[in-house]
Amino acid sequence: MSPDAALDAVTFTDVAKAATRLRGVVHETPVHTSRSLNERLDAEVFLKCENLQRIGAFKIRGGYNALSRLSPEQKAGGVIAYSSGNHAQAVALSGQLLGIDTTILMPENAPTVKLEATRSYGAEVVTYDPEKTVREEYGAELAKARGLTLVPPYDHPHVIAGQGTVGWELLQQVDDLDVLLVCCGGGGMLSGCGIAASVLQPDCTVIGVEPEAGDDATRSFHTGTLQSVHNPDTIADGARTPSLGEYTFPLVHHYADDMVTVPDSAIIDAMRFVWTRMKLVTEPTGALALAALFSGAVTGDGRRIGVTVSGGNVDLARAAELMA
User: Fold this and answer.
1) 59 is catalytic
2) Secondary structure of the chain in the HEC alphabet?
3) 315 an active-site residue?
């Protein structure tokens, strides 16, 4: 696929239509602020709390938008998805709401809370060893064998448009942002938020944030060529994606203004602050964007900064270990 074709595949109109489609299905999540956070980071920080979203993460937006766009034949045949957890829950719940059978591939080491939640929405969960299995290949094999429609976690126009409604909402909730920091795994939310910002607040600088160990998108952005990483060792399990996709790579390259990485230690610092000072539960991946400010990868400089808090599905025992 050419870059131009990818850019044409998802537009601001698609994001706006997704927002209409999702109205009454997903929550319009709140924006939280903290004077202590602002003082610490020398900025006016606005947290878009997708940890308070249905299924505990922004992924329900893209999952529901994609499943709702399937043909009657595809809906009747069922769908398959692969995910470390949040897209899994999003597709499972969307299938339950729309009456579509769902099969989800999840790594054996996925957080227990995410495995249990996915099953609770009625999905068939198939686990695999991430050291031995390439989930994209396994998913394609099962889709063909069972006659299922594959709904990927980020590299799909309808998924990207749905995820972009995070930015679509935030940029209408908060005026005159100087910077928008977006968590980045496969780049679906970053692509969609970048599209929204280009129209709603075109002077806002959009920056994607990745864990240092999973820096494929950052390297791709700065080199202009698609880079990959294999099973990165990071606590941000939602950002252990191997690479950007054929849609998200051109979209991120076009709509993002910069990409930065953060160490796991900064993710923990950000988690500890929002848990203890703001009473907000966030998972490691959900704290990625805020960690850019805690690490100094992005400086406050007195600016108005929007921050996506992408999810809150965390194993409590594991979180306690991390923040001890």
Assistant:
1) yes
2) CCHHHHHHHCCHHHHHHHHHHHECCECCCCEECCHHHHHHHCCEEEEEEHHHCHHHECHHHHHHHHHHCCCHHHHHHCEEEECCCHHHHHHHHHHHHHCCCEEEEEECCCCHHHHHHHHHCCCEEEEECCCCCCHHHHHHHHHHHHCCEECCCCCCHHHHHHHCHHHHHHHHHCCCCCEEEEECCCCHHHHHHHHHHHHHCCCCEEEEEEEHHHCHHHHHHHHCCCCCCCCCCCCCHHHCCCCCCCCHHHHHHHHCCEEEEECHHHHHHHHHHHHHCCCCCCCCHHHHHHHHHHHCCCCCCCCEEEEEECECCCCHHHHHHHHC
3) no
